[in-house]
Specification:
By secondary structure, the protein is α/β, with parallel strands linked by helices. It contains nine helices and four strands, in the order H-H-H-H-E-H-E-H-E-H-H-E-H. A four-stranded parallel beta sheet has the order 2-3-1-4, sandwiched between helices.
């Protein structure tokens, strides 16, 4: 894909979003957006600050809009709550500008917000592997997870070789059974 092609393949609202911000695709975006947009399992490896988050989320948001995915459509897993907040800020702004909802859920999320998420799930939920596991314990939460169409695992190298890695693997297997 050429420089402009990876953004031009996104739905109109996202193309406009990238144009309004004067974004030029980074190398990881040029290589990653096409396969993710095509629905392929993908592993994006690039240095910090190179645009991996947008390379993963832009094509998924594009598909969510084009294919009218119902909430909860995209699960975004990060290893740290602090990273959750940063990702929520960036993805939340993008989502709201294109008519989607994004939210975060972790151990410190107030009960009122958790209840609201269960009653009206966001399109994109940002969470940790531990909270992801806990979500399998309630029938309403399992119902919410049953509509997930895509999973992004951020900083997988932070979890892969630890107990969190096998817990994540088990959770993904459970999610696959639900969906």
């Amino acid at each position: 894909m050429g420089d402009s092609d990876c953004f031009s393949s996104l739905v109109a609202g996202l193309r406009e979003w990238t144009e309004q911000r004067g974004l030029s695709p980074s190398a990881v975006q040029r290589e990653g957006i096409g396969p993710v947009l095509a629905g392929n399992h993908s592993l994006l490896i690039a240095p910090t600050g190179s645009g991996k988050t947008l390379a993963a989320i832009l094509p998924l948001v594009s598909r969510c809009l084009a294919e009218d995915w119902e909430p909860l459509a995209i699960l975004y897993l990060t290893p740290l709550r602090a990273l959750n907040r940063d990702v929520e800020r960036r993805i939340g702004a993008l989502a709201s500008e294109v008519g989607l909802r994004a939210d975060v859920r972790h151990g410190d999320t107030p009960q009122s917000r958790r209840t609201a998420q269960t009653r009206r799930p966001p399109h994109i939920l940002i969470t940790t592997p531990e909270t992801f596991q806990i979500m399998f314990t309630g029938w309403r939460l399992r119902g919410m997870l049953s509509t997930v169409r895509a999973v992004v695992i951020d900083e997988i190298h932070e979890m892969a070789r630890s107990e969190r890695g096998w817990q994540l693997a088990v959770g993904l297997e459970r999610l696959e059974q639900l969906t």
